[in-house]
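seq:
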Amino acid sequence: MICFMKRVLSLCLCFFCVVTLYADGFYGADGWSAIQSDYRYFYSGDTFKAMALSTVLAGSLANSSLDQRFQDFYQEQIRSERLNKISSVVKPFGSGRYVLPVMFLFSAIFSDTSGVGEWASLSSRAYLVGAPLMLMGQRVLGASRPGETSHGSHWRPFNDANAVSGHAFIGAVPFLVMAKLLDDYPAFSALAYAASVAVAWSRVNDDSHYLSQAFLGCFLAWQAVDAVFRTRDDNRQGVGLGLSSFGTDSVSLSQKKGVVFKPLLLSAGTGMMMTYTF
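struct:
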């Protein structure tokens, strides 16, 4: 069932990218160029360094007794019926079956110049840019859910698919986008930042994910949102978003020397391709 859902999501991502490439829908004529810029920013050395550090931190929790000890403490000392009710309200905000169609629909019917349209457009692009790495991380690290297997949160590569909380990733993105859009209103921005971790908390509360898994989902969302806002800043500053641009660099991606990471979105799954140009 998990493999089937991953293939369905991969097909949806491919379809959305193709539609954006060949039509002026969803994001307008510059939509595909914007998405490509998002990918270049996200799958860059700076992002991979940040993700490496976050993975080391999460790994120190997951591959020791800390994850399980925190989980036991929370379930025995903190969880309550009242918190369960709050969690039941929060959890749907991290469900891809509800959130993704809504975001993609809003980005299609609302103009980017409107508040709702820009929020939905940036959120949708963050999902597109972060989803391949999220799906790959789930499978590569291979941790289990609480109480699911004997090894628990410990990483067993390709043995399971729960090392990164998908709910935490999906639930954090819209609120992180909202927080950045509300930078001029610190109080509202702070509330949005606080709300961005609500779904991650609900997964720990419901005993569905360990702390390390919820953390990785949130951090991945942060990096994806940061990438799309860097593209947004380039656009506002008049930096071109065509194939030959990457931030302020006018050298095309294909001409760059060194290591370049590219995400792969295929009907059979997702992955990562590394190229080295010299």
